[in-house]
């Protein structure tokens, strides 16, 4: 069977952020609680001129060639921050990105997990349709509300992945183990704009799912921790992934434990500065690992743990390819971080409450948003997306 996997990967987050030390002080908390206890240093902030559609378009546009845009025949849009209960976000992407009209467009949802399901569907589709290319995007805005316990784990961004035969970055193995359970650890009713979460319970469920799937994976495949170079975790906050990794570290030698911890640090460099992005979180972690590890090489096996509250989890492996660096957008995150603008806490709080909502016509000032694709306002209850 021809190998299938991620040929290209790209990321986008808005140009605004808050500093977690300043947020901690504004909330009368010790900065160490956020910086060490949660494992976050900065957090992306979404202006009214960005939403999940524009972020997804901005991420994908940076990696797609003209040939890609003609070859893509499926767009899978994963989000739990959708803008319409009927129309798929993928349909907007088809137009904004200039993709051909002979394209399937679909949106899917299962908390933070849907991006992984979309990726696996893309893998299987390409395997059955030689020559096809599938665009998978995971785009989200994590919102818990001002002055809430979850505020420190907010964030936003989009990861775009191009799935093809003979990929340059990683091949996706067919060793997936998955599990679901009806659990109320996190949810957002259709009438709510912010998520509801039982934080400590959700953290426990996350770790329980990981340990259960890890044991099942080992039993089914016969592999052990010694077969893995590193792991990428869903990171609603980066300390969560570290706790999960520590649960299985005793299975490794002291030398491998140190190596796995070093790879984990590489995998959370970007997440620490972006925050939570729900469906895209685990793939930002993968991108961070690929970009920041100094020891990854062709043939290395990476373990990937995806988790979505409510709850669904999946563990699988991916194999690093010889030209994996060529599938990354060179200097992308470094440029983003260098150009970002820090917001004061009052300015951040004001923007938090200015997101586009309601049915009244509204024109947004797009002049201050440097992104290519922006949300210009609402006319006749239709979002106005433009490139500028």
From TrEMBL:
Residues that coordinate or bind (3S)-3-hydroxy-3-methylglutaryl-CoA: 144, 243, 276
Listed name of the protein: Hydroxymethylglutaryl-CoA synthase
Keywords: Transferase
NCBIfam families, per database record: HMG-CoA-S_prok (TIGR01835)
Database matches in InterPro entries: HMG_CoA_synt_C_dom (IPR013746), HMG_CoA_synth_N (IPR013528), HMG_CoA_synthase_prok (IPR011554), Thiolase-like (IPR016039)
GO biological process: acetyl-CoA metabolic process
Family: Belongs to the thiolase-like superfamily. HMG-CoA synthase family.
MF terms (GO), sorted A to Z: hydroxymethylglutaryl-CoA synthase activity
SUPFAM superfamilies: Thiolase-like
One Pfam family linked to the record: HMG_CoA_synt_N
Protein's UniProt keywords contain Transferase: yes
Superkingdom of the source species: Bacteria
Active-site residues annotated for this sequence: 80 (proton donor/acceptor), 112 (acyl-thioester intermediate), 234 (proton donor/acceptor)
């Amino acid at each position: 069977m021809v190998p299938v996997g991620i040929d290209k990967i790209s990321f986008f987050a808005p140009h605004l952020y808050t500093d977690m030390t300043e947020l901690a002080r504004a909330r009368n908390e010790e900065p160490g609680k956020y910086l060490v206890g949660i494992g976050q240093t900065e957090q992306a902030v979404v202006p009214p001129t960005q939403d999940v559609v524009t972020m997804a378009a901005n991420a994908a546009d940076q990696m797609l060639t003209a040939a890609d845009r003609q070859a893509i025949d499926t767009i899978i849009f994963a989000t739990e921050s959708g803008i319409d209960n009927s129309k798929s976000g993928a349909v907007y992407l088809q137009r904004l990105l200039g993709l051909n009209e002979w394209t399937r467009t679909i949106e899917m949802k299962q908390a933070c997990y849907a991006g992984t399901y979309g990726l696996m569907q893309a893998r299987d589709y390409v395997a059955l349709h030689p020559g096809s290319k599938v665009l998978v995007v995971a785009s989200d805005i994590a919102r818990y509300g001002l002055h809430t316990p979850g505020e420190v784990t907010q964030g936003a961004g989009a990861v775009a992945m191009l799935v093809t035969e003979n990929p340059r970055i990683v091949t996706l193995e067919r060793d997936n183990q998955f599990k679901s359970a009806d659990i109320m650890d996190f949810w957002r009713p259709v009438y709510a704009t912010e998520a509801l979460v039982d934080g400590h319970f959700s953290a426990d469920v996350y770790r329980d799912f990981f340990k259960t799937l890890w044991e099942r994976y080992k039993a089914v495949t016969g592999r052990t921790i010694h077969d893995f170079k590193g792991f990428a975790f869903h990171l609603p906050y980066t300390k969560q992934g570290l706790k999960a990794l520590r649960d299985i570290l005793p299975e490794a030698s002291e030398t491998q434990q140190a190596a796995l911890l070093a790879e984990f640090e590489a995998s959370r460099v970007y997440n620490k500065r972006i925050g939570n992005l729900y469906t895209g979180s685990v793939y930002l972690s993968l991108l961070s690992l690929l970009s920041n590890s100094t020891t990854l090489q062709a043939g290395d096996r990476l373990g990937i743990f995806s988790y979505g509250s409510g709850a669904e989890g999946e563990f699988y492996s991916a194999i690093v390819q010889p030209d994996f660096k060529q599938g990354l957008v060179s200097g992308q995150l470094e440029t983003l971080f260098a150009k970002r603008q820090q917001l004061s806490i009052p300015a951040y709080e004001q923007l938090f409450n200015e997101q586009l909502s309601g049915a009244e016509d509204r024109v947004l000032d797009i002049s201050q948003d440097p992104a290519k694709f922006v949300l210009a306002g609402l006319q006749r209850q239709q979002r106005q997306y433009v490139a500028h």
